[in-house]
Amino acid sequence: MRALVTGGAGFIGSHLVDALMNCGDEVIVIDNLTRGRIENVSRWMENKRFKFVKGDVTDIDLMLSIVRGCDVVFHLAANPEVKTGDPSDHFRNNLYATHVILEAMRVNNVKRLVFTSSSTVYGEAKILPTPEDYSPLVPISIYGASKLGSESLIIGYSMTYGFNSIILRLANIVGSRSRHGVIVDFIKKLLKDSSRLEILGDGEQTKSYLHVADCVEAMVKTIENISEEIQIYNVGSDDAINVKTIAKIVIQELNLDDVKIEYKDEFGGRGWIGDVRKMLLDISKIKSIGWGPRYNSSEAVRLAVRELRDEIRDVS
To answer: From the CB of residue 86, how many other CB atoms can be counted at a distance below 10 Å?
Structure first.
């Protein structure tokens, strides 16, 4: 198939590109490289099945030309930062970008879309593990709101124009090429000062973590099973792990001793405003189509630390 991957030079996007190229597909990547890195896709630059476009997904004229002739669009481009920032950045790069992509698909009669949403659309869910039909969806961050808004746009376009769309609500994805998140934060802090580690919140924040290799396998599996107008899947591990335990794993994998743990708890146990304290997804629906994670949360975190420690040293 001919696939467009928005944000394809980023963390998850570049791993998806690797998988699609290894499957023999034709792949077009668009990325403005504000968060993505050209090094993540450089291995494919000379391949005739690969095309890289440096550009912004909010450019409607550019997207109209790029989407033309594609069989499927994998929409991953977004501002991935959950922490409170400029709300207009989330609106432009998450919600408005989704609108532009949907319009480009509509005009070009491209019918298949895979969208990476987030577990943050659930907010502080009262049911754990949380199923896809949980309601009401009350995100507590601008990031989560922008993802939920994007979901609504996709559903509206799909129902109106006959798109076959897959929405993937991802847990915390970790692994090589990641440049943000708790693991990256801890490694950077300890490389700077190995005697102490500051943890935002009370350390009891407990969430599901999934290795990026498992995440990409889930994305490929869902596109193989695309059929209905709208399919929504949770994508995560079967268990969860707290921030204190993640800190211990990072310290172990960096071979450090006598690290003083300090807590900066300013928001009632949360790391920041909008930080969901407990998250665990019900993944029984995606398991029913033949996918399951190879790694639990602890294994995914440990593997990610091993992959990231040298990468972060090299760019520090």
So the answer is: 11
